Amino acid sequence: MHKLDFFTQKRLSFGLFVMVLIVLTYATIIFTEYNVAKGFTSIPKAVRWATANFYPDAAAIKKLPAILAKLSDTILMSVASATVASFFAFFVAIFGAQTTRINVWFSVFARGIATVFRNIDVSAWALILLFSFGQSSFTGYFALFFVTFGFMVRVLIETIDEVSTDSVEALRATGASYFAIITQSVIPSCLPQLVSWVLFMIETNIRSATLVGILTGTGIGYSFDIYYKSLNYNAASLVIVVIVISVSAIEAVSNWIRRAVL
Amino acid sequence: MPLLQIAQLSKRYGTDKYALEGIDFTVDTGEFVAIIGPSGAGKSTLLRCINHMIPMSSGDVVFADASTKSFNATQLRAHRTQIGMIFQHYNLVNRLSVIENVLHGRLGYKSTVAGVMGWYSNAEKQQAVEILQSLGLSEQMYKRCDQLSGGQKQRVGIARALIQNPKLLLCDEPIASLDPSAAKIIMDTLKDINQRLGITIIVNLHQVDVAMRYAQRIIGINSGKIVCDAAPDAITPTIIHEVYGSEAGELILDFGEQYAQA
Amino acid sequence: MQPTTTIIVRPWNAATLILRITIISLVIITGYAFTTFNTRGVDFWAGVDMLGSNFSALLLTPYLKNITFDVMVHNLFITIGLGFLTTIFGAAIALGLALLAAQNLAPRWLTIIIKGLTAFVRAVPTVLWVLIFAVSAGLGSVAAVLGMTFHSAGYLIKAYSESFEEIDNGTNEAHKASGANWLQIVFKAVLTSSATALLSWTFLRFEINFSTAIAMGAAAGAGGIGYDMFMASGFYLNLHEMGAFTYAVLAFAIVLEAGATRYKASLSK
Ligand SMILES: Nc1ncnc2c1ncn2[C@@H]1O[C@H](COP(=O)(O)OP(=O)(O)O)[C@@H](O)[C@H]1O
Ligand SMILES: [Mg+2]
C-alpha cells in the first residue's frame, strides 16, 4: 500500500465531504417531502406576481400614517426589551463570568438559565406567553426580553472575561473592594461593547417583533398580516418598504455609534 | 529587619503536582530581590501567594511581623494595600485616562461607597500628579491608556503601585513585553524607587543578566523549589545550570555574554 | 505647582460623550415605550402572577396529549430538515455570489450592486419573504423553504464575502504573479484559506434556520414542531403539551450550541 500525497488526500476528503452533503440533502428532501420542482417553478411565478401586484399604490400611501404608528410600536418595543433585558443580563453576566464571579455554582446556574432562555425560539416564547398575557403588548415584550436576556448573558460573560480580566487582577491586588472593582474596572472596560451589543439586539428584535406581531396581533407584523389576509397587497408591500427603510436606518445609526464608541 | 518571611510555603493547584513546595526565605526592608527560573517554575505563583491573590495550600507568609495565614477578608484587603503589584501586561483599564488608572491605587484605602463612586480627595489627586511628574508622564496625564507605548503603560502601572504608599513592590516579569531601551528605563526606575524611597522590591525576571545587574540578591527557582539564594557575584555558571537545567542554562549563559558585550 | 482644584479625573472625549448620549437616549425611549404599550385589558400584574404557575405547568409537568411521542420526534426532525435544507441551498447560492461581492475578487460596481441587493434581502424579515412566496406557491413547506433560503443567501453572501475580503492579499498577488487565472485563484487561494470561516458562518446560520423553521411552522404553515406548538398554544390551550415541545426544541438547540462551542474551541487550539 502506498501513501497518498498530501494534496490528493485533501482533495479526496473534500470530495467525500461534498458527497455526504449531497446525500444528506437528498435524504432530507425525501424526508420532508419537499417538492423541488414546485420550488423552482414558484420562483418565476412569484417574480411575475410581485411585479404585477406587489407595489405601493396611491390608496396604500393613504394608509401610511396607520402603518407608521404600528411601526413605532414595534420599534419602541424592540428598544425597550433590548435595553431592559441587557441591563439585567449585565448583572447576571457579572456573577457568571470567571473573572468576577463570587461563587462557582452561581456561575453555573447563571449560564444555565441563559442557555435555556436563548435556545427557546422567540416564536415559541410568544406562544408560551400568550397563556399569561393574551394578545397584549406584554406578550411580545417578554418574548423579546427573554431571548435578548439569554443572548446578552452569554456575550457579556465572554466580553467581561476577554476585556477586564487583567485590570480586575490589578485592582484586586491594590485591596479594592469587590464592588469598587466592578464600577471602576469592569464597567468602564465593558460598557462600549455592551452598548454595541444592545444596538445589535435592537436590530434583531425589530425583525423578530414582526414575526411575534403576526402571532400576537401587535405592531407592524399585525399590520402586514391584516393587509395580507385581506389581499390588499399594495398596502402590504408598503409595510415592507417601511420596514426596510427603518431597519436600514437603524443599522446605519448603530454602525456610526459603534465606530465612535469602540 | 525582616519585612517579609516566607515559611514552608506550598501551593498546589487542585490535584496537580505542587507548583511550590516548602519555600523558605526572608526579605529585609530595603532589599532588591530578583527571582529567576524557567517558565513554569512557580515564580508568578510565589508572588501571588505573598499578597494572597492565590490562596496558599500550606505554610505562612509573615509580613511586617504579622502572620497573614488566617486573615479574614477585611484584613486581606488591608494587607494588599501595603503591597504594590506590577504586571507583565500592565493590567490597566485601557479605556480610562492615565490619571484615573493611577488613582485606582487608592481604592484599597476607601470605604465601599467612595470606592464604588470613585471619589478621590484633592490630596490624592495631587499625589497622583506628582508621581506622574516624577516618572516623566505629565504630558500623558489625560491621555487614554490605549494611546500609550508599552514602556509608558508600565510606568503608569508603577505609578498606580506607588500611590498605594506600599512597603513592598511585587513585579511579575515587568519587562518581558518591552524592547530593550524601554526595559532599561523601567529597571532604572525600579532601582531608583528602591534606593530613593527605600521601598523593598521583589521582581520576577527571566533575563539572568538583568537580574545580575540590578538585584542585590538572586533567588533561583526550579519546579517549585528554591535552588539558590545568593548575591549576584556568587552566582556561577554551575548555579545557572542548576536553575535552568543544563541545555537551557548553556543558551542563557551564551546569550548573557553577548548581551554584556553589546 | 499645580492648582489643586483643576485636576480632572475623567476627561471628556467624543467616545464617552457619544456613549453617554446613546445610553441616555435608550433609557428615555424605553421609559416612553412603556407608556405606549397596548394592554388590551390585560392586567400586567395578574399576568406576571400567572407566569409563575404557567412556567411550572410548562416545565415541571410536560406531557403529550394530542400527538404521540413518535409523531413529535418526527415533526422535530421535519423542522430540523427544513433548517438544514435552507442552509444548504442558501450556502450554495451564497458561495457563487459572494465571490462576485468580494472587493478583492470582483469589480467594484458589481460588488456594490450585489451588496446593496443582499442588504435589501436581509432587511426584510424572513417571515415576510415566506408569506410573499406563499401567494404564488401556497402556504406550506415550499414557500417556507424559498423564503428562508432567500434570507439565508442574503445573510451568507455578506458573511462569506467579508471572509473573502479578510484573507491575506499577498496570497492572491503571489498566485496572480505566477500566472493563475481568476478561477484558479479562487480555488487554490481564496476557498482554501477561508474554509474554516465559511464553515463557522454556515453552522451559525443553521442554528438560526432551525429557530426560524420553528417560527415558520407556527406563523406560516410550514409544519413541523412549530405547527404543533402553534396548535398547543392557540387551539388546544394545553401548556403541558407545550412543555413537551419546548423540551424537544430546547434539547436540539442546546446540542447545536454545544457543537458550535466545541468547534470554536477546537479551532482556537
Ligand atoms: N491557575 C492555575 N491552575 C492550575 N495550574 C496552574 C495555574 N497557574 C499556574 N499553574 C501551574 O503552576 C506551575 C507554576 O506556574 P507559574 O507560577 O505561572 O510559573 P512561572 O511564573 O515561573 O512561569 C506551572 O506548572 C503551571 O502550569
Ligand atoms: Mg509567570
Report what the structure shows:
- Helices cover 86% and strands 0% of the residues of chain A.
- The longest helix of chain A has 39 residues.
- Chain A has two domains: 46 residues; 201 residues, MetI-like fold.
- Chain A is globular.
- Chain A has eleven helices and no strands.
- The termini of chain A are far apart.
- Chain B is an alpha/beta fold.
- Chain B has two domains: 171 residues, Rossmann fold, CATH 3.40.50.300; 75 residues, no CATH class.
- Chain B is built from ten helices and ten strands.
- In chain B, the strands form two sheets. In chain B, strands 6-7-8-3-9-10 form a six-stranded mixed sheet, sandwiched between helices.
- In chain B, β1 and β2 form a beta hairpin.
- The N and C termini of chain B lie far apart (39 Å).
- Chain C is globular, with a radius of gyration of 25 Å.
- Chain C has 269 residues and is mainly alpha-helical.
- Chains A and C meet through α1, α2, α4, α5 and α6 of A and α1, α2, α3, α4 and α5 of C.
- The structure holds adenosine-5'-diphosphate and magnesium ion.
Descriptive key words:
heterotrimer; A: 262 residues; mainly alpha; MetI-like fold; 2 domains; 11 helices; B: 262 residues; alpha/beta; Rossmann fold; six-stranded mixed beta sheet; four-stranded antiparallel beta sheet; 10 strands; 39% helix; binds adenosine-5'-diphosphate; binds magnesium ion
Task: Give a quick summary of the entry.
The complex is a heterotrimer of chains A (262), B (262) and C (269). Chain B is of the alpha/beta class.
Show the largest interface: A-C, 74 and 75 residues
Number of domains of chain C: 1
Q: How many DSSP E strands of chain C?
A: 0
Number of strands of chain B: 10
Strand order of the largest sheet of chain B: 6-7-8-3-9-10
CATH topology of chain C: MetI-like fold
Q: Which H/E pattern describes the elements of chain B?
A: EEEHEEHEHHHHEHEHEEHH
In whole angstroms, the N-to-C terminal distance of chain B is 39 Å
Q: What do the pLDDT scores of chain B average to?
A: 92
Oligomer: heterotrimer
Distance between the termini of chain C: 54 Å
Uncertain runs of chain C with pLDDT below 50, 5 residues or more?
none
- Measured on Cα atoms, how large is the radius of gyration of chain B? 19 Å
Using the 3D structure, state the CATH architecture of the largest domain in chain B: 3-Layer(aba) Sandwich
Query: By helix and strand content of chain C, what is the structural category?
Result: mainly alpha
CATH topology of the largest domain in chain B: Rossmann fold
